What does this fold into?
Amino acid sequence: MSDQARPSPLHDEHVALGAALTDFAGWQMPLRYGSDVAEHTAVRTAAGLFDLSHMGELEVEGPGAGDALDRALVGNLTALEPGRARYTMICQADGGVLDDLVVYRHPDDERGRRYLVVANASNVDVVRDALAERFAGRDDVTLTDRSEQTALVAVQGPRAQEIVVRLVADPAEADAVAALRYYASVPARVAGLDALVARTGYTGEDGFELFVPAGDAPTLWRALLDAGSPLGLVPAGLSARDSLRLEAGMPLYGNELDTTTTPHDAGLGRVVKLDKVDAAGEPLPFVGREALESRAHAVPARTLVGLQGLSRRAARHGYPVVTATGAVVGTVTSGAPSPTLGHPVAMAYVTPEVSAEGTELAVDVRGRHEPVRVVPLPFYRRPR
It folds into this structure.
């Protein structure tokens, strides 16, 4: 482990399972336990167990919590019902994305006073500091960083519900977990531990993310492995997580999103709620509103598209996208072979004139132009 990398609360579990560890966003995390493809396939066909303890958890509480978040983020968080969650973003004044987030309203919160903001590992400090700055001068909201005290474990795949519910002893709680809607959460005792159970994930499959105190993480991890292994569950690392989210067309901060990118560039303009209003019914000012309002109906300079590889060589982050004449018209943001589909896939920003579905392009893969075709995102949708 490098001197700077922090161990996960599950570090000893990963070592015992023979994981290949890597430094990621300042954390020592499992890259894989065995085969990347086997871990990926297990999530698509049965279930995978992920350690997400590197993610950041920021509590926002107080009578002004909802209003403060509405002014700090692009989403309408006061509209969230208790127990629901929303995918949103925190942007700069120029509309550039500082991070993409999931915000949960506490299931027992009847007055809009308790929210949990989950930030990407690489951006926890950035998000915390930006929120603190945007909440400055308010005495009706408090911000608390719970990242160090919180562990996050995910069970993803078609058998995820069966596995998690097996560990919920109370019948009423088990029914509540099974009945959870997508992007909703409920408190429950899982394997005898107090947890916030959310039906969210980053793989394109059904699944759950479980927030527990960091000290409880090893007990929960082992219980999930024991319950899930007979059903095909395997531990899965960052490599499988990345190929799964790519197939599902989900953006990764630092690849598809960054401070030079607006939500509209990434095809995510729907998360920007320009219809937010204050108590007087006037448009609610939020950071980035003016810039994003001007972008809402403008033709973007670049568009995020899916690319299906027509040869065996996969495009990778940073590779140029070119036309038949060799003119550069874009850049790959993420790319890999797709274990599920059997051919390479990539996401790329390209100029609007070559963004139509079916357009034939190429990617410069180390000097060779490998053919690709523009296809809709996501590449994969789970069977319903």
The two ends are 42 Å apart (CA to CA). The first helix runs from residue 11 to 16. Residues 163 and 228 are 5 Å apart (CA to CA). The chain has a mean pLDDT of 96.
